Amino acid sequence: MAKEITPRSQDYSQWYLDIVRKAGLADNSAVRGCMVIKPYGFAIWEKMQQVLDSEFKRTNHVNAYFPLFIPKSFLSREAQHVEGFAKECAVVTHHRLKADPSGNGLIVDPDAKLEEELIVRPTSETIIWNTYKDWIQSYRDLPVLINQWANVVRWEMRTRPFLRTAEFLWQEGHTAHATREEAIAEARMIHDIYADFAENWMGMPVIKGIKTENERFAGAEDTYTIEALMQDGKSLQAGTSHFLGQNFAKAFDVTFLNDSNTQEHVWATSWGVSTRLIGGLIMTHSDDEGLVLPPKLAPLQVVIIPVPKPDAEINEVAEKLKKELESKGISVKYDTDEKSRPGFKYAEYEMKGVPVRVAIGKRDLEKGHAEVARRDTREKNFIPLEGLGAQIETLLDEIQNNLLLKSLRFRQENTHRADDIDTLKSIVDGRGGFVSAHWDGTVETELKIKEMTKATIRCIPLDQKAEEGKCVLTGNPSKGRVVFAKAY
RNA sequence: CGGGAUGUAGCGCAGCCCGGUAGCGCACCUGUUUUGGGAACAGGGGGUCCCAGGUUCGAAUCCUGGUAUCCCGACCA
Predict the structure, then answer these.
(1) Residue A466 DSSP code
(2) How far, in Å, is the CA of A22 from the C1' of nucleotide B48?
(3) Which nucleotides of strand B come closer than 7 angstroms to any CB of the protein?
(4) Tens digit of pLDDT for each residue in A308-340?
(5) What is the arrangement of strands in the sheet containing A434-438, beginning at the earlier edge strand?
(6) Prior bond of A143 cis (ω within 30°)
């Protein structure tokens, strides 16, 4: 029994915080709203980075790095962009401290005030487009396909580890193109990469769609989003890819000469996923016993536990199995710590979401088998030592598939249709989930529905079927259903 | 940024009302016995009681001011 994790049924938020804490993913820090990502949590992020980074490179992107600070004036160049971010910026006003003349400690030196304040980047469009201006002259300079791995700061009023922190880690891609079509194709391609990553690596099914005017990125013409349904019936925006049109090119005066010698503004995209994905990963699979990780992203895939403690005979079998698994590219730990007993270790590794646990004791050796437990279903089986490595390899694939199937089933069971506002409200107020409903396409209606139900339009699904209908609120004509849900 | 609460050992808390040598559980260290689902016993270490001022012979406790965090709202990847 997991004695320290609050059950989901009792308090979902507390459960989430318990998992983050007890699985050793992150700690609160001395800084409000900022967390310390601990080695185990960071290892998951590193795995995510590896996969995404190689996908970006496969699609011809390169990495670069731009400054943490942005001159205040840059932010105001693009009108909607300022509006979207101004309220949550950390600002640097001085560059020096000095001893407090009236006692101990330090004060900000008033003589060290900056000419122009610097904003700690909430996102890098402005500093990057200011730079692109110098890089782009001709259609031959295009496209520019750059990604950066960075931290950003958004001064949020309320924070939760991974899901919303004042500082977070992410990647942000910023691309420049000669044509509208090419930029849109780029934004869509990245959208596909994000969706594939969510499903095939995280085992987290997502709805691919477009944001409504009200929900889209400040400064974008279109925002493509992936939305995942969490266990508590809320939706998590897991990644976005924006078609920025010529907004930033115009704001920063980035033009190029096309092949017929005319000046044009560049077309842009930007796209990002953040450490928020880790929050999504937790809330998609984990249970009351702790974290559950899909094998493809688990820092440790298999743990071998000697029962009750290591000895020469067990060590030999365990080490051999470890080598065999490692030769298949599987990460393995043989836990020879003699201070804690097997039961403690079982609970510990379940808490940490290690996909497969192998227990080997004297009795097992006599019978020529080992006890293999899978974290996702918590099933245990005795499997012959002969061929055990291959069995485990298969089992890891099975777990990966099972987690996706399970989440797909959950989403299916928690996706409903609503044809009137009362139904919409009762679903949202009850178990939550995705609600597919008609909407008349106006911001006013969306806001009114939000006010009444707390649900927002998560997206207009890309695979939206043309379907004549009436808006759930106004009864005005609608051409297709959109997805409502409460959001994180 | 509005409403409410809380800061005492690494973590979780009691003590405060009614001022008098700072405690409990977990964790940690040492030892012994244990060991197939979170071991037991014995001994031990660890504290600017959020900060500053005040009242007092004496403050974790009372008073004033600050500050931080958490919860509920509004705002948001």
Answers:
(1) P
(2) 30
(3) 1, 34-39, 68-77
(4) 999 999 999 999 999 999 999 999 999 999 989
(5) A62-63, A144-153, A167-177, A267-274, A235-245, A222-229, A207-210, A456-461, A481-485, A434-438, A415-418
(6) yes
Residue A73 near residue A127, CB atoms below 8 Å? no
**Fold of the CATH domain A300-394:** Rossmann fold (3.40.50)
The strand B neighbours among A residues 387-426, by Cβ under 7 Å, are none
Instruction: Give ranges for CATH 3.40.50.800 in chain A.
Output: 300-394
For chain A, give the longest Cα–Cα distance: 82
- Report if CB A81 to strand B is under 7 Å: no
Identity of residue A222: D
Residues 257-316 of A with CB within 7 A of strand B: 274-276, 289, 307-309
What is the location of CATH 3.30.110.30 in chain A? 415-485
The answer to whether residue A101 scores a pLDDT higher than 80 is no
Contact A331, A299 (CB under 8 A): yes
Task: Verify if strand B has an atom below 7 Å from the CB of A21.
Answer: no
Best CA proximity match to A202, nearest among A320, A282, A291, A289: A282
- Separation of A340 CA and B45 C1' (Å): 22
What's the token pair of residue A319?
């080490």
A415-485: which CATH topology? Translation Initiation Factor IF3 (3.30.110)
pLDDT 10s digits, A413-433: 999 999 999 999 999 988 899
Spatial separation of the C-alpha atoms in residues A50 and A197, rounded to whole Å = 11
- Whole-number Å distance between alpha carbons of A485 and A414: 11
**Cα–Cα distance, A84 to A112 (Å, whole number):** 30
Determine the distance between A428 (CA) and B38 (C1') in angstroms.
Answer: 39
- Nucleotide lying nearest to A159, CA to C1' measure: B76
- SS3 of residue A239 by DSSP: strand
> Which residues of A in 109-168 have their CB below 7 Å from strand B's atoms?
154, 156-159, 163-166, 168
Distance (Å, rounded) from C-alpha A399 to C-alpha A1? Answer: 22
Q: Is the pLDDT of residue A105 over 80?
A: no
Report the alpha-carbon angle A267-A170-A80, nearest 5. 45
Class level of CATH domain A12-285 = alpha beta
* Contact residues for A163 (Cβ-Cβ < 8 A; gap 6+): A236, A276, A279, A488
CA of A99 to C1' of B55 (A): 33
Residue nearest to nucleotide B12 (CA to C1'): A4
- Say what the ipTM of the complex is: 0.88
**CATH 3.30.930.10 location in chain A:** 12-285
